[in-house]
Design a protein that fits this description.
With 132 residues, the protein is an alpha/beta fold. 30% of the residues lie in helices and 22% in strands. Strands 2-5-1-6-3-4 form a six-stranded mixed beta sheet, sandwiched between helices.
């Protein structure tokens, strides 16, 4: 049995399988994911649980991030989430792209981790780096 870190089996396996330049998306409860697209790890229980922040922090403890993308609409529609992303991703500051472009980028992900978050634009695309 794991001592700590991510204990959700499907999420732990998805994170362990990530390699350099692979993409993972942490999403709110409403982000559309293409049917024939990436695997989805659905953590949502009820709206708000688990939160985007909780899941993002847990994932960031497990992976190296070399780049990140967010929808530009987040700056006005969800300033607190935007601030959170800026503070947590200082080493790979989020690049802003239009939400429609962000949704197209989701199809390139290996995995989408769906949270119970119910605030707008609480989504981030993370490109994996290497620890050396």
């Amino acid at each position: 049995m794991k001592r700590g870190g991510v204990i959700h089996g499907q999420l732990a396996a998805a994170l362990a399988a990530l390699r350099h330049t692979d993409v993972i998306v942490i999403s709110d409860s409403g982000l559309p994911v293409p049917v024939s697209g990436p695997d989805v790890v659905d953590l949502g229980v009820v709206y708000g649980v688990p939160s985007f922040e909780t899941v993002l922090r847990a994932v960031l403890e497990e992976i190296v991030v070399e780049a990140s993308l967010v929808a530009s609409e987040i700056r006005e529609a969800n300033a607190s989430c935007w601030g959170l992303l800026q503070s947590l991703l200082e080493a790979a500051p989020p690049l802003l792209i239009p939400h429609e472009d962000f949704k197209r980028q989701v199809a390139t992900a290996r995995c989408v981790v769906r949270t119970g978050e119910a605030t707008p634009y609480a989504n981030v695309l993370l490109r994996c780096g290497v620890p050396f």
